[in-house]
């Protein structure tokens, strides 16, 4: 009696490249340029017109590029390239000792702290104006949310007894900067499609194998 065995996936290669990229003075990336310009503009504008004004704003962007190719028994099953950018904005009003992230005692729910906010998608076409537009809209939204919660924090503190935890809501730290080369994927997709079809066709020599796949994937992450 013949035994038929599924084989797969066979992972030929995988690469995960991660870099933390900050403002590069020689050739700044469009993302860095947009973040720097919008940080200056947003902080200046909200310092003048915000009530209360923010004392801290931070931006972080995670940029991901990925390639995945899969072949089975000599045929290409999947070949795709993806790219995404996710923006996370943190806006704080108040001061280092007491701000909108302060824990509210007596608040219903498992988490009395500020609600978790998911990152938002950014354009991937490197248009600085388009990037700045998304950054500002999210900054404005986060600022308004921070103001509303800071009002709740102050009201809660006014009617509650002294707190056991009197530590500051944010610590003061010295500024640090790091500049690393941007990570990228250097993968000839067409060549690897041919290779994977050739490699996976080897399974056809064995009649007991009814399914065999070969996969290669690569990821490159850049953090701003």
Overview of the molecule:
22% of the residues are buried. By secondary structure, the protein is an alpha+beta fold. The radius of gyration is 25 Å and the shape is elongated. It has a 5-stranded mixed β-sheet. The protein is built from 3 helices and 5 strands; from the N terminus they run E-H-E-E-E-H-H-E. Helix 1 crosses helix 2. It has one domain (5-223).
Number of strands: 5
| Percentage beta strand | 25-35%
Alpha-carbon distance between the two ends: 59 Å
Order of helices and strands: EHEEEHHE
How are the strands ordered across the major sheet? Answer: 1-5-2-3-4
Helix content: 25-40%
Backbone structural class:
alpha+beta
Count of the domains: 1
**Main beta sheet strand tally, sense and closure:** 5 strands, mixed
Descriptors:
224 residues, alpha+beta, five-stranded mixed beta sheet, 3 helices, 5 strands, 32% strand, elongated, disordered N terminus
How would you sum up this structure in a few lines?
With 224 residues, the chain is α+β, with helices and mostly antiparallel strands. 29% of the residues lie in helices and 32% in strands.
List the helices and strands and how they pair.
Layout (H helix, E strand, L loop, with lengths): L4 E16 L9 H20 L4 E19 L2 E19 L26 E2 L6 H32 L29 H13 L7 E15 L1
Parallel strand pairs: 1-5
Antiparallel strand pairs: 2-3, 2-5, 3-4
Helix pairs in contact: 1-2
């Amino acid at each position: 009696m013949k035994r038929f065995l599924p084989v797969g996936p066979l992972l030929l290669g995988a690469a995960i490249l991660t870099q933390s990229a900050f403002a590069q003075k020689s050739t700044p990336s469009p993302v860095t340029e947009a973040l720097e310009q919008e940080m200056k503009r947003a902080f200046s504008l909200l310092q003048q017109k915000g009530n209360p004004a923010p004392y801290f704003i931070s931006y972080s962007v995670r940029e991901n590029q990925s390639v995945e190719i899969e072949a089975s028994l000599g045929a290409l099953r999947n070949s795709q390239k993806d790219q995404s950018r996710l923006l996370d904005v943190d806006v704080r009003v108040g001061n280092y000792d007491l701000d909108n992230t302060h824990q509210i005692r007596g608040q219903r729910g498992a988490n009395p702290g500020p609600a978790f906010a998911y990152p938002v998608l950014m354009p991937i076409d490197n248009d600085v104006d388009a990037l700045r537009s998304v950054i500002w809209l999210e900054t404005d939204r986060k600022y308004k949310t921070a103001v509303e919660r800071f009002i709740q924090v102050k009201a809660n503190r006014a009617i509650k007894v002294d707190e056991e935890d009197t530590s500051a809501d944010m610590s003061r730290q010295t500024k640090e900067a790091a500049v690393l080369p941007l990570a990228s994927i250097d993968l000839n997709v067409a060549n690897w499609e041919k290779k994977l079809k050739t490699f996976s066709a080897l399974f056809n020599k064995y009649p007991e194998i009814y399914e065999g796949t070969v996969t290669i994937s690569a990821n490159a992450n850049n953090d701003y």
